[in-house]
Amino acid sequence: MVSAVRTVLGDVHPADLGVCDAHDHLFFRSPRLPGQELQHVSATRAELAAFLAQGGGSVVQWTPYGLGRRAADLPPLSRETGVLVVAATGLHQAVHYDEEMLGRLRGRLAEVFVAELTVGIGTSGVRAGLIKVAGGFHGLDGHARWTMRAAAEAHHATGAPIAVHLELGTGSLDVLDLLCGELEVPPHRVILGHLNRSPDGVVHLQAAETGCYLAFDGPSRAHHATDWRMPGAVRALADAGHGDRLLLGGDTTTAEARSVDGGPGMPYLLRRVRPRLEAELGGETVERILVRNPSRAFAVEWR
């Protein structure tokens, strides 16, 4: 069995990812962000082209079930731009869905995840390459536990990695206790997102010591201005011997955040974040974080 990354164009050798934006959104729609939907194909194409122009090679889209993934549009966009795209199955926090949709998933959530990983998302034929779920603020509610149990079941059936939205960067140890402890998901199959939003170095080290991946993704917003702490947090983890478990992403979730609409967008990761981290860590370490680490984090011996 050969290890491969499952992209929207099919399985590829992990080395083919090149420079990887390990957490972003090409399409996204949520009632929590009215009027800020990422839904226009032309804007997505332009954003991918801008990312490619900065040296980007691949993007992992963390948009899960029911939030406007537009899976059928992803393969042509990947072909047209030359950027590899990995799609997600999974489920976000309950606030992003109505009760009717959640009710339809009761009792069959893991089945849905497995089908999207192995058969395809809807009628698109596009297979997901990871499972995205979400924790709560400093804890896990019933919805989070339900989705994580389904994600663990799907992981055990397929080998797919599990990516976790940490609310404002919190709750990472609770997530690991559930997924890697009780539910027996290997830590190297878990990716924790948004750690930059809660720059607690002690918690970061505790999480890293389990062997999971730690993603620092997205420039700060007004309510979590932590950009100035992020390089130091990444350096502390690298200095402690965890440089092979670090990932970087852009996490573009609104139309106004796209570079083509005047925001930082996906190119910001390579245009501004990369040189800032190179000044802190050196080029070789940053290259490892952008290229080698994603090739291992998202590679699976698919079952």
UniProtKB/TrEMBL annotation:
This is Phosphotriesterase. Belongs to the metallo-dependent hydrolases superfamily. Phosphotriesterase family. The keyword Thylakoid does not apply. It comes from Streptomyces plumbiresistens. InterPro entries: Metal_Hydrolase, Phosphotriesterase. Keywords: Hydrolase, Metal-binding. It holds the Pfam family PTE. Gene3D superfamilies: Metal-dependent hydrolases. The modification N6-carboxylysine is found at K132.
